[in-house]
Design brief:
heterodimer, A: 7-stranded mixed β-sheet, 4-stranded antiparallel β-sheet, 11 strands, B: mainly beta, globular
């Protein structure tokens, strides 16, 4: 079955960097685009970034463009989110999700928590 | 940027029908997905491409999309349906994915 496991979250000071990872299994990873979605405490879902199946195309929400970078390693079945110049408002649970063939985010991990605090 | 507007909350008695709306400019021209999120859990897709249910989602769940509003309808509501529900579309003009603000469905 499809499994997505995020890691790399933690407490970080404003202005610092953090890299999140998402390990995928149970499907042909190189055939699917992948997303990062975040959820601030007590708030709704916010799409963050997308990367195409071969990594040649990426897209970012305005709130993170220029600070975050998504990448993937199809040989390791992993997708990454490099987060730079972190701000208090980046505090959230970060989910990775698979871009389904049916237009949906069809599988989700359980998330990794990022807390930006001095 | 494209905006999806949902009511913050919907309350419904067990066995009755819950309707969750999702308003967006000409949303009828887009493909709408709906996600259910229970406390402490990751979201799960309950409807895709406006009206299609993934396997394992009860037939009690249905969707529609026309004009400026999409809806998720849950008939014969059960206590286990209590959750936050989010609509989502792809904004092709910016190649961004957009979520609505979410609706908390409370079963009385």
């Amino acid at each position: 079955q499809v499994q997505l496991v995020e890691s790399g979250g933690g407490v970080v000071q404003p202005g610092r960097s953090l890299r999140l990872s998402c390990a995928a299994s149970g499907f042909t990873f190189s055939s699917y685009g992948m997303h990062w979605v975040r959820q601030a405490p007590g708030k709704g879902l916010e799409w963050v970034s997308f990367i195409s199946d071969d990594g040649s195309y990426t897209s970012y929400a305005d709130s993170v463009k220029g600070r975050f970078a998504i990448s993937r390693d199809n040989s390791k079945n992993k997708v990454y989110l490099q987060m730079n110049d972190l701000r208090h408002e980046d505090t959230a649970l970060y989910f990775c999700a698979r871009d389904g063939e049916d237009d949906s985010f069809d599988s989700w991990g359980q998330g990794t928590l990022v807390t930006v605090s001095s | 940027s494209y905006v999806l507007t949902q009511p913050p909350s919907v309350s419904v008695a067990p066995g009755k029908t819950a309707i969750v709306s999702c308003d967006g400019n000409n949303i009828g021209s887009k493909s709408v997905q709906w996600y259910q999120q229970k406390p402490g859990q990751a979201p799960v897709v309950v409807m895709y491409s406006d009206t299609d249910r993934p396997s394992g989602i009860p037939e009690r769940f249905s969707g529609s999309n026309s004009g400026n509003m999409a809806t998720l309808t849950i008939i014969r509501v059960e206590a286990g349906d209590e959750a936050d529900y989010y609509c989502q579309v792809w904004d092709s003009s910016r190649d961004h994915w957009v979520f609505g603000g979410g609706t908390k469905v409370t079963v009385l």
